[in-house]
Amino acid sequence: MIILPGITLVNSNLHVMFSSTKVCMIMVATGMASLCGCDPVRTTNQNFTIDVEDAQGLPVPDAKVRIKESWESWQTWGGGTAESEKSYLRQRWESDFVPWLKGVTNDQGKAVLN
What distance in Å separates the CA atoms of residue 99 and residue 93, rounded to the nearest whole number? Predict the structure, then answer.
């Protein structure tokens, strides 16, 4: 096998060029992500309206309404988890981590919860 010095030099130069190109591309991609920014983490709220009626279907004015995400929906997160993890999730659910949505009905029995 014959190794020619010129080809080795070209091969070495290409390797260096491609290595520095990879580094430059990574730096450009990182810079673009930094300049463009990512979606910031923020809390969003969405209000919704609930109608409260009595047994005859009449609106109930001035009723205090409280709703919280169900414990059953939180249990699906822990699917096949250990009891200790379910206990931890239950503590989180019972704490203020999962807030109660509150509102008071108006004369038409409608409450805006947030």
Answer: 9
CA separation, residue 6 to residues 10, 11, 23, 53, 62 (Å): 6, 9, 26, 89, 90
pLDDT of residue 2: 54
Report the phi/psi class of residue 82: left, alpha or beta, with left for phi > 0 and alpha for psi in -120 to 50: beta
Q: Which parts of the chain fold into alpha helices (H)? A: 5-36, 71-75, 83-94
pLDDT grade for 44, boundaries at 50, 70 and 90: confident
Classify burial at 83, counting beta carbons within 10 Å of its beta carbon; exposed 0-12, middle 13-18, buried 19 or more.
Answer: exposed
Which two tokens mark 54?
């009595």
What is the spatial distance between Cα 87 and Cα 82, in angstroms, rounded to a whole number?
9
Per the CB < 8 A criterion, the answer to whether 99 and 66 are in contact is no
Residue 5's φ and ψ, nearest 5 degrees, are -60, -35
Q: Indicate the domain borders of the chain.
A: 1-41, 48-113
For position 94, what pLDDT does the model report?
86
